Amino acid sequence: MGRTRENKAEIIEGLKQDLSEAQLTFVVDYSGLSVAEITDLRNRLRPIGGSCKVTKNTLMQIAIDGDDNWQPMGEFLKGTSAFLLVGEEVGAAVKAYKEFQKATKKTELRGGVMEGKALTKQQVEALGDLPTKEQLYAQIAGAINGVATKIAIGVKEVPASLARGIKAISEKEDQAAA
Questions:
Q1: Which residue range forms the structural domain that includes residue 122?
Q2: Which has the higher per-residue pLDDT, 32 or 112?
Q3: Residues 6+ apart with CB under 8 A from 87
Q4: Contact between residue 124 and residue 87 where contact means Cβ atoms under 8 Å apart
Q5: I need a labelling partner for 75 at 20 to 30 A (CA). Which of 37, 149, 165, 176 fits?
């Protein structure tokens, strides 16, 4: 039993909504994956705000038509496609996918789209090397603490330097007076 036109329209609207909330979408060929494996992939993405949509390429094509941001995805719409939609945690989502792929060895990353640009498989994988938001915050905090420590040491050193300078001048004057 095929899907009715209303069901297809609902799916397309749902895809448009999901895309509007995504920063990156990448496309994988999922042929050979079991339902349990797709569920595993979804479970890996969910905690970092990502999702995995399995839908017909024709429905995704309709969803991206006229949307300049996602239009480049058209070149990846062939065969069996799963769409991984990612919010802010781009690097973490790509890492999660790479770990899944390493475990199953059944999917093939075709490419992705971010900020209106098509990304190659290598470019998407490189995003996995980006630090997570928490890692960035830790790096910034570490840098701020390092600067604050240097300032504190420098400020603490000023009176000691001043005291040594005064003592040296005093000793010089004592020697000159003697």
A1: 5-130
A2: 112
A3: 21, 22, 23, 48, 49, 50
A4: no
A5: 37
